[in-house]
Design brief:
Blueprint lengths: L4 H7 L5 H12 L5 H42 L3 E5 L7 H9 L4 E16 L2 E10 L1 H4 L5 H4 E4 L10 E5 H7 L6 E12 L2 E15 L4 H4 L2 E5 H7 L8 E6 L5 H11 L4 E5 H4 L1 H39 L1 H9 L4 H32 L1 H12 L20 H18 L1 H8 L3 H5 L3
Helix pairs in contact: 2-14, 3-12, 3-14, 3-16, 12-14, 12-16, 12-17, 14-16, 14-17
Length: 428
């Protein structure tokens, strides 16, 4: 008998069949007070709307983050190894060490420096990057972003240059025209230090869709860059492409232990840390703000159950006189509130998933129907709302919504359990 006591104690918390039946009956029943039914419907709709909004907004923000990340990594490597002072000697041995890492797919040397482009009366500051065109295609997707010409046209000793579309537009230069590149590394003359000047021919124009690259990046051949910046056989660094981009911080940490002093491994998350931190902060704030919709719906559940408890005073009293315990009365109204929250949560989750998966169809339809364009092509680089649905976020939002609805039932259910049969039946 002693062994049965724990089970009896646990059985008190198990939902009995009649408690579930009455709770579901109260949910479905047509009440004398139609206002309570209306508030119940509003609670379900509010819960569903909040869940749907959360899923769709999180999916859109994930889509924007994914789109921007792909564009960033389309023009920049996953990981770079750079040297102090921008000069890496004996880089072949360093590249060999990097290439032997199991997560590294490809690696290539590069030369980077600042300069100034002059064409006619126009002058623009640029970031010059010397690359090996044959190796660059295995590191970045720049070759796919070239709108005019080809990246392979950057041949050694021919002094060709590939410009970003906004940079070419600002200078007013076209394909085949020659421009002057001025670098701060100068030559000593009787008149003093003079900057180095070299004429380049435009052999290509690329467009990535991001201002930092399109309006300030110029590509030249690595051998031409070595001559221009007086590096000899040295390079600025080595860029790499990884099998899994999310492992970049771990790979950078592992390579750092193998590199000589004066060399540093920087991954893409470190180079763009401010941007991604801002996106994560914005995503968290949007989640908190939109969660208020669910909270408002939860308050509606509280008001619905409080009015239902008041409306069912006589029923509660009769159940108590028939032997129902306060705990059973509490469970009955918890069932009623949970059903409202569960229906709203499930409806919102299904609608949110369907809308997030078909956003590329729904948004153009709305734009065509009302004659508006949410993301104008001449203003934004991304003209369509991207969506990246992540099911773990769907389960998180649904679980949070259900938990809030469950917590909202506790006070009204507790109040119902405190009903005194004699007081409730006095005027019946």
């Amino acid at each position: 008998m002693a062994n049965c006591r724990p089970f009896r104690h646990y059985a008190k918390f198990i939902l009995q069949p009649y408690e579930l039946f009455i709770g579901l009956r109260y949910t479905r029943a047509k009440r004398r007070n139609h206002f309570i039914s209306f508030i119940s419907l509003i609670s379900m709709l509010g819960m569903g709307l909040g869940v749907m909004a959360l899923i769709v907004v999180l999916s859109v923000m994930n889509g924007f983050q994914k789109e921007i990340r792909e564009r960033m990594l389309g023009a920049s490597p996953h990981l770079e190894v750079v040297a102090d002072g921008g000069r890496m000697e004996n880089w072949q041995a360093i590249q060999n060490t990097i290439s032997h890492h199991p997560e590294v797919i490809a690696s290539a040397p590069y030369v980077a420096g600042q300069g100034m482009l002059s064409f006619g009366q126009s002058v623009q500051g640029v970031m010059v990057r010397g690359i090996d065109p044959a190796l660059e295609t295995s590191i970045t997707d720049l070759s796919n972003s070239v709108k005019a010409g080809k990246l392979i046209d950057l041949r050694s000793t021919e002094f060709g240059i590939v410009l970003g579309s906004d940079l070419a537009r600002a200078l007013g230069v076209r394909m085949g025209e020659k421009i002057m590149l001025i670098t701060p590394q100068g030559s000593i003359t009787p008149a003093g230090m003079m900057p180095r000047l070299k004429q380049f021919r435009v052999v290509g124009i690329f467009e990535i869709g991001m201002a930092p690259y399109d309006n300030s990046l110029a590509l030249i051949n690595i051998s031409d860059a070595q001559k221009l910046f007086q590096l000899g056989d040295a390079v600025t660094g080595i860029s790499t492409k990884l099998r899994v981009i999310d492992k970049a911080p771990d790979v950078a940490r592992e390579l750092q232990y193998k590199l000589p002093d004066g060399l540093y491994a920087n991954d893409w998350t470190h180079q763009n840390s401010n941007y991604f931190k801002a996106v994560q902060m914005e995503k968290k704030m949007m989640f908190i703000i939109l969660s208020l919709i669910v909270a408002v719906a939860a308050f509606n559940i509280v008001s619905t159950l409080v009015m239902a408890v008041t409306d069912k005073q006589s029923d509660i009293a009769i159940l108590r006189t028939l032997g129902a315990s306060p705990r059973s009365i509490m469970k009955i109204f918890i069932v009623q509130g949970v059903v409202i929250g569960l229906i709203g949560t499930l409806a919102g989750s299904v609608c949110g998933v369907l809308l997030a998966l078909n956003l590329n169809v729904v948004v153009p339809f709305i734009e065509h129907l009302f004659g508006v364009q949410f993301l104008a092509k001449d203003v934004y680089y991304i003209s369509e709302l991207p969506s990246d649905l992540r099911y773990h976020e769907v389960f998180m939002v649904s679980g949070l919504s259900f938990l809030i609805s469950l917590l909202a039932t506790l006070y009204p259910s507790w109040r119902a359990s405190k009903t005194q049969p004699a007081e409730a039946l006095r005027y019946e």
